[in-house]
Amino acid sequence: MTRVTVLKADTYRRMPWKNGGGETVEIAVSPEGAALSDFYWRISMATVAVDGPFSIFPGIDRTLSILDGNGMSLAINGAAPVLLTQGDDPLTFPADVAVSATLADGEITDLNVMTRRGSLRHRVERVDVNGTSMRQVVASTWLALCGHGDVVLEYDGNHAALGPCDAFLLEGGEGAMVSLSGQAPCYLISIEGA
C-alpha cells in the first residue's frame, strides 16, 4: 500500500541530543515514536553551536548534510578532518565510531539520516531544484526535504507545497515518478532493506 505524508517543520518533535550537548529536531522516525535506542531509521536536524564530540549510536550508519551555516570539519575515527559545507555532497560514516566536530565559522544546522546496519541501508542525494525536474522513487521509503526556498511536489495527483525544512514522505511508491518544481536545494532520502 502506498502512503503519502506531508511533514511540516513547525510540527517536528524536539528533543535533547543523546549526549546532552544540544537539541535535535526529529523529522521522521520508524517505528513512529521510537526512542533513540530502538529506531529502525531516523531523519532529523540539529543546530551545532559549539565544537565537540558526536553521540555514539551502536550498529547505526549515518549521513550528514549541511543545511545552513558555513560548515564544519569532522574528524572521523582518528582520520584527518573533512570539511563539510552546504555545497558538498552528503557525507556517510558509521555512527558508532568516535567523531569530533569543529565549526568552520559560526553555528550550523545539519540534516542527519540514520539507519540500523544489517537491516536497512540509505542514500541521501542533494539536488538543486531550479524550475521543474522529475525524479524516480527507487526505495520503499523515500523522503524529500526542502532546504531554503519553496518546492511543489506532484505525485499521482497529490500536490504538496513545501517551504523551508518541510518534507514529503512516500512509502511503498517504488518506481513512481515525482515532479519537483520551484527553486531550492532539496535532499532526497532513500531507505530500503539491506
UniProtKB/TrEMBL annotation:
Keyword Cell inner membrane among record annotations: no
Alphabetized UniProt keyword annotations: Plasmid
Keyword Plastid listed: no
Annotated signal sequence range: none
Gene3D superfamilies: Jelly Rolls
PANTHER family: PROTEIN VES
Protein name per the record: HutD-family protein
Organism: Rhizobium grahamii CCGE 502
